[in-house]
Write a sequence for this structure.
């Protein structure tokens, strides 16, 4: 099946710093999503981005589908950005829409 | 509009028992998928239902089963619980056709003792 690798596995930042989280995947995809898992376990949708670039406030994401990677940028980080960030991909729609997740990136933002 | 709702939020069961978890998708969404999250294995796909039919299944034993009702609500059942079934179970819903973006519920945390 498709492989998803996220890096780095852990990231420690000072409040106000910028960061880049990376997601590499092994095959062409029809769906790529970034999630932030809150302390209670819920996966919060950040971006649906199978290709291209999107921005939402201090967060932005870019997926280069032809090179099979995606980047999540966090600018001016805040302590509330702490948590685990997951990248998940799917090959297609319908019966091929199951998501394969990376192992996650644990971000700690220090005040 | 309301998000994905999972019940119950927390559950403690004894080995050998069975458990049923429920998921109500976003209104209008016809696909419901289930995932298991454990510290050791991460997030793993269990199965997906679309229009009351199982459309895809992950690599889990037959003790794990599910179903979907005509209103798109889904249940998953785990029989003969084992200690290793302790996990966070997450449900996701999507429109299910060309639009595949998934939205997750808050999860059910199952502890097997």
């Amino acid at each position: 099946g498709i492989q998803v690798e996220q890096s780095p596995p852990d990231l420690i930042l000072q409040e106000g710093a910028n960061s880049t989280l990376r997601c590499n995947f092994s095959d062409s995809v029809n769906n790529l999503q970034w999630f932030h898992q809150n302390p209670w376990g819920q996966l919060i949708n950040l971006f649906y981005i199978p290709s291209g670039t999107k921005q939402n406030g201090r967060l932005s994401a870019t997926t280069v589908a032809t090179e099979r990677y995606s980047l999540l940028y966090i600018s001016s980080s805040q302590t509330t950005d702490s948590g685990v960030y997951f990248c998940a991909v799917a090959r297609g729609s319908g019966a091929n829409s199951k998501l394969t997740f990376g192992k996650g990136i644990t971000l700690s933002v220090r005040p | 509009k309301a998000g994905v709702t999972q019940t119950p939020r927390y559950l403690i069961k004894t080995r050998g028992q069975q458990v049923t978890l429920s998921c109500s998708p976003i209104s209008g969404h016809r696909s419901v998928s289930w995932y298991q999250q454990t510290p050791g294995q991460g997030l793993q796909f269990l199965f997906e239902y679309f229009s009351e039919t199982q459309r895809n299944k992950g690599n889990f034993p037959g003790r794990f089963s599910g179903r979907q009702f005509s209103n798109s609500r889904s249940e998953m059942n785990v029989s003969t619980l084992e200690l290793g079934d302790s996990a966070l179970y997450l449900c996701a819903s999507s429109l299910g056709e060309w639009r595949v973006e998934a939205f997750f519920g808050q999860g059910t945390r199952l502890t097997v003792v």
Observations:
- The CA atoms of residues 2 and 27 of chain A lie 6 Å apart.
- The first strand of chain A starts at residue 4 and ends at 7.
- Chain A has a mean pLDDT of 95.
